Recover the amino acids of this structure.
């Protein structure tokens, strides 16, 4: 199966204006084992916390156009990337990663990497089987120069994602504890995002009150506020 070399570059057209958020969280991952052991529990915990969550494999219809998947990612406030040993075996997963990094750089989409049974350095430096699987995926999905272009794009995206402050399963006693921390962090970041959105109107109201008070006090000379 081959993909067009313009697959990732064409996605930039969706970010020309301020994104219209549809989801709170998009979960990017690969692997049935990861879904059953970790992602399903994370998805359930987020849903119970009233966090509107989209999963790349489960919620997106099979055969869904790449363009629609890219819009779904751009329409999410937070992207959770679950890195595992099998992550680089999926072309779709890697293309989604490119889009997530693009959204992070373009409109500061919040990105939370989770390293599940894989070392951060393996992701950043494409070590051992993780790096070999990336090359195999590129050769399987592309041909000619497109293969090298894909490898370069994916390597950069993986390196950038690994450089973002994330969570490592090895620092927690079990999956449940990690899920709890992720849900708490997501809720905090969503609350902060809402405060950032409403901050300007609150300040504007404060300035209006100052102007009205000035009109009442004619004895003081007007001051210039820059």
């Amino acid at each position: 199966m081959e993909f067009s070399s313009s697959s990732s570059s064409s996605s930039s057209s969706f970010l020309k204006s301020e994104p219209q958020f549809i989801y709170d969280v998009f979960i990017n991952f690969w692997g049935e084992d990861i879904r059953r052991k970790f992602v399903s529990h994370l998805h359930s915990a987020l849903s119970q916390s009233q966090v509107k969550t989209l999963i790349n494999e489960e919620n997106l219809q099979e055969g869904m156009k790449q363009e629609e998947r890219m819009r779904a990612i751009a329409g999410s406030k937070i992207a959770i990337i679950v890195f595992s040993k099998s992550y680089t075996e999926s072309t779709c997963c890697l293309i989604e990663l490119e889009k997530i990094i693009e959204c992070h750089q373009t409109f500061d989409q919040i990105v939370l990497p989770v390293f599940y049974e894989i070392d951060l350095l393996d992701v950043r430096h494409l070590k051992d089987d993780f790096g070999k699987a990336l090359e195999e995926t590129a050769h399987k999905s592309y041909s000619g120069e497109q293969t090298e272009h894909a490898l370069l794009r994916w390597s950069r995206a993986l390196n950038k994602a690994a450089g973002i402050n994330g969570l490592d399963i090895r620092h927690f006693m079990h999956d449940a504890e990690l899920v709890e921390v992720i849900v708490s962090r997501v809720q905090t970041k969503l609350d902060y995002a809402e405060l950032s959105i409403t901050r300007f109107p609150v300040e504007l109201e404060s300035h209006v009150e100052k102007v009205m008070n000035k009109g009442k006090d004619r004895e003081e000379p007007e001051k210039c506020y820059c």
